Amino acid sequence: MELTQIRLLVSDFPAVYRFYRDVLGLKPQFEAEGGPYAKLSPDTGHAAIALQDRAQMADVLGRLGAEPEGYRALVVLRVDDLDAAHAEFTSRGAEFTRDPGPMGDRMRVAYLDDPEGNLIELQEWLVLREPAADGPA
Which residue ranges does the record assign to the VOC domain (predicted)? Predict the structure, then answer.
């Protein structure tokens, strides 16, 4: 078995597509702003996010016709410099629901929503600090 992608079902395909392409800077496999499907990837790594028009999928699975309530997905993207990514995405129109801050001692995170209300977490992994030595033995 191989995981090929995580697909988000969206109602306003063009708005969500532009958000992931233009605001977050993910690269589309092919230009498909009108949908009904697109796969977008960061510059590094193997993971990808796919977008699927909800109405098209509702034709296949009728239960998908109703709009979802609350968060349905948490998209996690690792960045090397969280403050720089926060500034860059903000300059492109992103509105963060939580600015960069610590999450434990292993990472810093920030949160924003895409146009459909899917939650996005940006992570910056921190180097674990060695406990301070008590002095020479």
Answer: 2-125
